[in-house]
Amino acid sequence: GSMLKYDACAVATAWDAMVDSARLVQQHETSEGPSITSGTAFELDVLDITRQVLSNHAQVLYAGIADLLRTHIDSKWTPPDMDMLQQRVTAYITLLDHLDGLLCMSDHFSFDAWLDKARALTTYPEYPYSSAERDLMDFNARNLVTLWGPTGQINDYSSRLWGGLIGSYYKLRWELALNATVAAVRNTHRTPNDGAFAEAVRRFEREWQHAGAGGSIARTCRQATETSILQACVATWETYHVAVSARCKDAH
Fold it and tell me: For residue 27, what pLDDT is reported?
């Protein structure tokens, strides 16, 4: 279940109101002139609350996966059960993809912006940094928001909902977990061996820490589109508001 300390449905109601305001703003903006909201606090607020609603909804989707697994601890999986599990896994991963792309639209929520600031510390002309020092700076920037320690001493303590970090790290880690679960259930009707699975995840986490070594790191965010942040938030609302609203009706 959810570990939220507040009413997620109250946030969803505020989301509805802010998206309505975003629509009104868009109606008054002309296609010929520059956007009056680009880079403003209003745009950032709409993005931020959209981020939070999607994050809350991800917990709901994950709970649906966990509930399905729990109900089959001592029972056999039928083909329809397996289809339902795969559908719920796909919905969860799709949401992570959607959230990643949305947050990549703003430097305020971009992991690339975090990495760029770390790398910028190695550009001072008065001090010629070595390639090893630049790689260390990149490693530290990654490690601080993930493993926080060479072998995960405080793993995820400083986690962040950032575009690029979700897509290149959290989503891939979830795919490891969920794909292993689906495969194990399909083949043995049981969840994966915890020891072997944990080692596979930790191996991925450690390798990811060094992904920027050698200066050949690819951008973690996908290439930006011409869509504005407000347009993307409105489109996100249109995709998810029915499911979010239905959940809130069931909860009350």
Answer: 80
The type of residue at 13 is T
Half-sphere exposure of 179 (CA within 13 A, CB side): 9
- The answer to whether 111 and 220 are in contact (CB under 8 A) is yes
Q: What does pTM read for this prediction?
A: 0.89
Which H, E and C letters describe the chain, residue by residue? CCCCCCCHHHHHHHHHHHHHHHHHHHHHCCCCCCCCCCCCHHHHHHHHHHHHHHHHHHHHHHHHHHHHHHHCCCCCCCHHHHHHHHHHHHHHHHHHHHHHHHHCCCHHHEHHHHHHHHHHCCCCCCCCCCHHHHHHHHHHHHHHCCCCCCCCCCCCCCCCCCECHHHHHHHHHHHHHHHHHHHHHHHHCCCCCHHHHHHHHHHHHHHHHCCCHHHCCCCCCCCCCCCCHHHHHHHHHHHHHHHHHHHHHHHC
Q: How far apart are CA 147 and CA 6, in angstroms?
A: 28
Q: What is the mean pLDDT of each run of 10 residues along the chain (252 residues)?
A: 80 97 81 62 95 97 94 85 95 97 94 90 81 86 90 88 95 93 83 80 90 65 78 96 91 70
